[in-house]
Amino acid sequence: MALVVPFGQYVPGTSIVHRLDARMKLLVVVTFVLALFLAQGWLGLLICTALLLALYLTAKIPLRRAARGLKPILILLTFTFLANALTLSALPLGEAPLIQNANPFAGPFALPESISFTAGGGFGFKPPGALRGLYFALRIVLLVCVTSLLTYTTPIVSLTDGMVSLMRPLAKLRVPTEDIAMMFSIALRFIPITAEEAEKIMVAQSARGAVFNKGGLIKRARAWLPVIIPLFVSLFRRADELASAMETRCYRGKGRTHLRTTQLRAADLAIGGFGAVALILIGILL
Amino acid sequence: MLSFEHVSYRYPDAPSQALTDISFSLRPGEYVVLLGSNGSGKSTLAQLTNGLLLPEAGRVRIGDLQTDNRMTIRELRSQVGFVAQNPDNQIVSTTVLDEVAFGPENLGFEREKIRANVTKALEALGLVGFEERDPNSLSGGEKQRLVIAGLLAMDPVFLVLDEPTSMLDAEGRAEVREAIAKLHAQGHGILHITHELHYAHEADRVLALKDGQLVYDGNPAALLSEDNLLVDFGLKADDKGDDKGDGPFCHACENMTKGTVPFVIPSSSLKLQAVHYSYNFNTPEERAVLKGVDLTIDLGSYTLISGSTGSGKSTLLRILAGLLAPTKGQVSFSTGKEIKPGDVGIVFQHPESQLFARSVEEEILFGPNNLGLLSGATKEERAQLVTEALAAVGLDPQAFTQRSPFTLSGGEMRRVAIASVLAMHPSFMLLDEPTAGLDAQGRAFIHRLIAQLQESGAGLVVVSHDIEEFQQRAQDHLTLRDGRLWRL
Lengths: 286, 488
Prior knowledge:
- The structure holds two protein chains of two kinds.
- Chain A is an all-alpha fold.
- Chain A contains twelve helices and no strands.
- Chain A is flat and about 55 Å long.
- By secondary structure, chain B is α/β, with parallel strands linked by helices.
- In chain B, the strands form four sheets. A six-stranded mixed beta sheet of chain B has the order 6-7-8-3-9-10, with helices on both faces. A six-stranded mixed beta sheet of chain B has the order 15-16-17-13-18-19, sandwiched between helices. In chain B, strands 2-1-4-5 form a four-stranded antiparallel beta sheet, with helices on one face.
- In chain B, strand 7 (158-162), helix 6 (170-185) and strand 8 (189-194) form a beta-alpha-beta unit.
- Chain B is globular.
- Chains A and B meet through helix 8, helix 9 and helix 11 of A and helix 2, helix 3, helix 4, helix 5 and helix 10 of B.
């Protein structure tokens, strides 16, 4: 049983997208998402789409792979589209929003459903609603694809290192950034180990006749107890042993030195900075 | 010098002392092997060496640094590296390089010093070129070497290793053994704690622990030639055999009853015909592990299947137990009946990790209940089944039925786990590395159990990389290589 990886799994490569510093990539992704929500019409969204396509091509990530990543949200997309296409038609024709300002009520984080349901009334398929549905669906697609691109082109370790490094100024506010970094690292290390262990226990209990996928909700939940209890017992033992190992190696959250340098190259800064500014502008102006 | 001075220790709420009045010292550069059976107190002693546990009486110190002084504990720990059994639970980083640098970073070393120490440690443990690898992708032996490298980078004077090879396969054991010899040659003082006698040959000095007391401190050769002492210390099973004459003497077996086993699935054999198995079948990442395996397991037979790590032993076992469908080929009982989960008894490696119930009784009845063997059974019949299963593994039913499995010792947990499989009355039993991590008495118990099951008519398969342990007793020895079984 394979561990389900959220978004995409790292695809090794040497493209400029791959080589860009993880912190800068995070910055660009965050501004890209901001631009998606700030954009007030089709033009902004289409420019974002074009940009993202260009990035996928540069990174040499097959679009087929990105499409596969959209499968789990297919239902959400369909629902978004249909909810808009069907309910918006209740508005009198004259008041139907024009294409240019397809989401007049949307603030930066407005959810599509919140608008579409205010219309109320009868059902029926009408083009303006369909267009608006398409707009929202595309926005979700872009959101997922841009975060997937990040995980396709960046090893998880670099990502967490990047996040921790971006957090570092918070240490001055007495936020225990070293400890948080440590927790990230431990979590990353133990997720696959725990998944493998869960699978082993499941198989062992199946050999004792346990069945996991029959009966009602409560019966199913109970069926998992013989897996969950040993798994927790084991996790607590691991935690205990890991704590001893860390004490043995004199771990402390403060006053550690670091082997790896975290200097940004000029090119990283330039690309990251320009990218972020450009995206914000797209979002605000279009 | 690392010294124990009249050290005693008792765990909170424990009825008796884990260690009593222990005194010895370890000189820099000395290789000392500390021997002791399961439950002799050797892990407790290991944890006292660097202040993970503090003595109840007496003291542990290196020069002026005492383990109970909180002000100097970090300095003391930087001098005593401690390696535990399970490498997985000692690694904190997501790359090999970061892992080795972790200790020196904690000690606040300058970057150049960290770099130099890390390079030195990677070279000493043969891990050069592994720097950017994910520790999860390493073999067991490589992981344990990584743990040792991480401690070595802290410039320790002593290394304390608590059963460092007990979780490893033959290859990993050899690697770690070689690493220990090398570190000794480089001048590190080493305290190697183990129940495996063969490590004692290479030691400068041997200590032996029995029931929490230091019973031997001296020359390895003098101890190894004294069979009586070794048996007394629980380091060796008495191979003169007991009155019944089957296998080495085993204390736990004294209460074992054979009983007659009513087999649930009447069949004369278990058959695999041209079985193939591939991971990621029909995808570009397809990887074939089994490439045409034929195997017949008869009732009353005893087959050993060996093979190195990754040879597909576990996959084969899962297929035999009906837990995994082959990608090609036939798996069935000789009667033609298909094998379903629960039809064949399987004891996985470290089966104690599947225990979950509130009581031993509930644990044992879990399997029979799931299989529907107890529908309509009276309370007495259920109790009878529990009693039989416990007796078959030599545990006193009266004392154990109502206990929580989690309050048992490691050895008792393993026996309850085996009893919970036996209670399903399988006609075929598969055992995966059944002696892993067991001391002399524990191993004697497993051999006796197998002999009794075979005698009562069950068909047995043991899968192990430890050929020496089983090949004399098994009737048939097959080895899995390149996806096929070979007869030896």
